[in-house]
Please model this.
Amino acid sequence: MNKIRLRFNLVFPMFLMVFVQTAVAAGTTAIVGGTVVDLDGKSPIENAVILVEGERIAAIGKAGSVKIPDGAELIDAKGTWLIPGLMNMHVHLGLVLPGKQSAELANESEAALALRMAAAARESLQAGVTTIRLPGDRAHADLALMRAINKGQADGPRIFSAGEALTITGGHGSKKDGKTNYDGPYELVKAARTQISAGAKWIKILISGGIATDGGDLAAALMTPEEIHAVIDAAHRFGAKVTAHSGSPAATAIAIDAGLDCVEHGYFLDRKTLRKMKERGTWLVPTIVVSQPATQPFFERIGSPPWYLERRNSAGKSHWRALEMAIEEGVNIALGTDQLPAEPNDGATATAREAQYYVEAGMTPLQALRSATIETARLLEAEAEIGSLETGKFADIVAVESDPVKDIKALRNIALVMKGGKVYRNSLEQ
Ligand SMILES: [Zn+2]
Model:
C-alpha cells in the first residue's frame, strides 16, 4: 500500500508538468526582430518572425504576419541578420597533421580519437556550422559520432560521412600507421561497399598526391581509370556519392568521365577541366584556406615540418588561380576547409575565412554565403530539409551581427546558433 502511494506521489507531479508544458505550446520558439537574409538576392525580411516548432520552421514572415502562440519562448534578435546554419563540406574531425601534433597523437586509441572528434564537433556547432561532410576519418569513429549526435547523446552538426577514405598503395595518405591500402578494381569496390554498409553516404577516393603526405606527385594521376570507374560505379549502385581528392587535371578528367560527383581541393585544375566540370555539374570543394597566407600562423603553431610548408607553398598560387577560374566558369562550388570548422585563422574561424577568400577570388558576398548554405545543401541533395530558412525545413539558424550580403566578414561575429530548434549558443541581449 505504502509502495503504491509513494509511486503515485512521484508520478503525479511529473504527469502534471508534462501536461502544463503541452498546454503552453511545448517546444515553440519565436525568433523576433532580426533581418532574414534572402539567399536569392531579393530584399531581406526586416523585423521578421521565425516561428520554430519542435525541430522545424513552422512559419516565417514580417512581424504581424506570423501569429506567435501564447507561451512561446521569445528570442529577441533585433540588430542581427539571420542566415541558415553554415555548412562545411571538407572536415576531418580527427585531423592530425604532420609535425608536433602527429608526434603527440602517435599512440592515440580509438576511444580517445572518438572523444577528441566529439569535442571538435561541439566546437564546430558553436562556430555556427550546423552541417558537415566528413571525407575520411579513422576507425569509423565518424559514423559512431554521427549516430550519437542523431540520438542526442552528443552535440554537433549534422554529419554526412564518407567513412574511411580509399587510398592506393604509395598514394596520398597510404603510409599512415594502420592505414589499409586498396589496389585494383576488386579491392576498391569491396572497400567502397564496406564503407557504405557501415553507414557512409559518400565515398572518398584519393586519385592524386596531396599536400599533407609524401604519397606521390600533387599533380599526377595515380589511380588508374579502371580503378576509378569501378569504385564510382559500385558506389552509385548503392546511392552513395563519390568525391575525389585531386590536385591533378588528368586524374580529374578521367574521374569526371566516370561520373564523379565532387572534386576536393583542385590545386592544379586548368580551365579545360573546369569547363568539363561545369558541363557535367561536377562540384568543387576548394579548401582554399589550406594553401593561402591566412593559415601560415596555424601551420607554424602546430609545428609543421619544412617539407610540408614547401609543398603547401608550391600549390598555393595554382590553387588560387584554379579557384578564380572555377568562379569565372560558374562551376558548382560548396564551401569546405580541410581544417576544423572553428580553427582560428586570421582572426576568424576557418569556415568564415574560407568564405572571405571566395569573395577575394571573385564571388559576390551572396554567392559566398550560398556556397556555405543552399549550394552545399544541393551538393548533399538535402536542400528540401536544410540550407535555407523556409517553412518546413529544419530550424538550423544563425544570427550574425552585420549584413553578410554587404560584407562576408559578417560571418566572423556570430550571436546565435540554433540547430534543429535547439539553441546551442546565444549571446544576444535578452
Ligand atoms: Zn582532407
Q: What stands out?
A: The pocket of zinc ion is lined by residues 90, 92, 135, 338 (CB under 6 Å). The chain has two domains: 2-85+388-426, 86-379. The longest strand covers residues 56-62.
